[in-house]
Design brief:
The complex is a heterodimer of chains A (95) and B (146).
Chain A lengths: L1 H24 L17 H24 L6 H18 L5
Chain B lengths: L1 E3 L1 H6 L6 H11 L4 E3 L3 H7 L1 H8 L3 H14 L1 E2 L9 H7 L6 H9 L5 E2 L3 H9 L4 E2 L2 H13 L1
Parallel strand pairs in B: 1-2, 1-4, 2-3, 4-5
């Protein structure tokens, strides 16, 4: 289990590094494939932990991106109306 | 199933991240979040405006929007087209028509919206509109108990 924990830490660092890197540079989404060797008997358990970890990382990453947002509640309501108007138009509601 | 208004989706880009986390949590516990058609098209149509108001980097905003869109199922018009006329008769704001039609087509599914007029209109036909974070949290705790 110690090996699993240290692999998890290492992987978490790697993923953070990659997510930060590609958030600054990407224009097209790209799949990142990492090969990790674990004992076959532990593979399923490892996969479950890994999936949870990636999900948590993504959430943390998105929250850190959001931190710099200057959007206000008033902006959200106004922009929401603009988006809704466009959606209604495309539905033919205004014709 | 919960119909999500575009104003909630835009509000999830506010720095506190509360709405964003609620969307993730609702999704995680299996509540289907749905939107009428053309949400993606209109979010990208107004991308520059959202970017300017939020001050977010281009890449960061694209990433956030694409992740949000992964959590929300956009329904095809064909699924609620037959309720558009009825919705038009109920709505005092034409912009709300697709949302109401989608809700009607799904057995009066509740709508998550900050729009006061939509809430009033929906009240007339017995559609529940969740308009505060507290109500969403209540919804979450009820669903977790099921």
């Amino acid at each position: 289990m110690d090996i699993m924990k240290s692999s998890q830490n290492l992987l978490s660092e790697l993923l953070i590094e990659m997510l930060i890197k590609f958030s600054c540079e990407f224009s097209i989404m790209e799949e990142v494939v990492i090969k990790i060797e674990v004992p076959r008997e532990l593979a399923e358990e490892f996969k479950k932990v890994l999936e949870q970890l990636v999900e948590e990382l993504k959430t943390r990453f998105m929250l850190s991106l959001l931190r710099s947002s200057k959007l206000t509640e008033d902006d959200a309501v106004r922009l929401g109306e603009v988006v809704k108007h466009g959606m209604a138009e495309r539905h033919g509601v205004y014709y | 199933m919960l119909v999500v208004d575009a104003n909630v989706i835009i509000a999830s880009l506010i720095s506190k991240g509360t709405i964003f986390l609620l969307i993730k949590q609702l999704n995680r516990i299996g509540i289907r979040l749905v939107s009428p058609s053309f949400l993606k098209e209109e979010l990208y149509e107004h991308f520059n405006e959202i970017r300017e108001r939020s001050g977010l980097e281009d890449a960061a905003l694209k990433y956030l929007i694409s992740e949000l869109l992964n959590l929300i199922e956009v329904k095809p018009v064909s699924q609620y087209k037959m309720f558009m006329k009825e919705a038009e008769e109920i709505c005092s704001d034409k912009n709300d028509v697709p949302y109401l039609a989608l809700s009607l087509s799904s057995g009066k599914a509740p709508i998550w919206s900050f729009d006061k007029r939509l809430k009033e209109d929906c009240g007339k036909v017995g559609i529940r509109v969740i308009s505060s974070i507290e109500e969403v949290i209540r919804e979450l705790s009820l669903s977790s108990k099921l």
